[in-house]
Amino acid sequence: MPVASRPQMRPRVAPDLFRLTLALVAAALVLAAAALDLAAHSVTVGSHASVHEFDLLGRTIAYPSANPSALIVLALAGFGLVVLLRALRSLVRQALAQRRLARSLAGRHVREVGEVTVIAGDAPTAICAGLRRPRIYVSEAALDALPPGELEAVLAHEAHHRAQRDPLRLAIAQLLGDALPPVRRLARHHALATEIDADAAALGVAGGDAAPLANAMLRLAKAPDGAVGIEAGRVDSLLGRPPGRALAICSALGALAALVLLGLVVMLAGRTAAGSATLALPVLSRQPCVVALALLPGGLAALAAVFLRRR
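The chain above was modelled as a monomer; its predicted structure follows.
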């Protein structure tokens, strides 16, 4: 299939989407911090705090007292904690994945050719890896399978990733998307934009001719462990029809509107939020055995559900 040449280079989009993602998540973190601060100041916790009580089977059950505004603030503070925990989990997962990748590449090291590391492998592979010091890795099979023009286009593509420190940017965007699900779509748009921008750099080396890069993409995509994927957006861009920013902008505007709405809710609820809880353990009862017996059936049911799901 002939691929149209595209002499005019498109402006880089990935850095703008990356900054937009960072701005949205920063706003979300500020909102979460404000909710946590309001929760800390509006809810009184102490051993002699005023709480609600009722009698159940001759036992006195105590539970925290809070007005609706305090409940809203606490809910948003809990949301902030969930965001932070999800970010921490994503950070640990990506750190472990990067460690495994670094060990795998180090174990397959063959030689250095300038700024390119040649690795062993039967499948044609070309990737840019490394968070602090990104480097280009090309398998011996790729050197044998790719003609000079296609290899030059692939190296230009990966060199752009290295120059822009895309592995680090993609890792951060992935972390932010995992921490805040509404930003996940924007993170995917950013990932696609990094590939399209790198393709544009490769086209610049080839004089606007998309055929070498397109053919190389087909060869590398056939590799079982190849990092190059053929996405519809990349194909459209190579054909001279780069995807627009409408979806990314709509996603960003939707997330921004939600953050503004939550910010207004926090401001209004923070003015009248008031609550109190006791430090007595357990918090929900002055009789630990009663709470333990009440939670036992639910705990057993949850364990059974987890077991059946794994089976």
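The first helix runs from residue 14 to 42.
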